[in-house]
Amino acid sequence: MKSLPKSLVLASTLSLGLAVAACDSPAENAMEDQAEAIEDAADAQADAMEEQADAMAPAAEEAMEEQAEAVREAGEEKADAMEDAADEM
């Protein structure tokens, strides 16, 4: 199961890179690809945490799901900051 999220991250990163390759500079594309990979990795980690939470007692499940959401939001914020920086290149 661990290889599936990594495969999804790689596939989505590659497809995004191909979609925007014609529009931006190589440096901007590379930074945007990194940002997307960070966001995808955070999503995959949060998804795994949520799956683990499903097997826990209700109180522990809620706490784990809150942690998963925090991981997801942190990844999105970091990716957004990187994409903003890339746009200024």
Q: Which SSEs are present, and which pair or pack?
A:
Elements: H1 3-20, H2 26-53, H3 58-87
Helix pairs in contact: 1-2, 2-3
The number of domains: 1
**What coarse outline follows from CA principal-axis ratios?**
elongated
Low-confidence stretches: none
Biggest sheet, open or closed, and with what strands and sense?
A: none
| Radius of gyration (Å) | 15 Å
Give short descriptive properties of this protein.
about 90 residues; mainly alpha; about 85% helix; about 0% strand
Walk me through what this model shows.
This protein has one domain (3-14, 27-87). Helix content is 85%, strand content 0%. It has three helices and no strands. The chain has helices at 3-20, 26-53, 58-87. Helix 1 (3-20) runs antiparallel to helix 2 (26-53) and helix 2 packs antiparallel against helix 3 (58-87). The mean pLDDT is 83.
State the gist of this model.
It contains 3 helices and no strands.
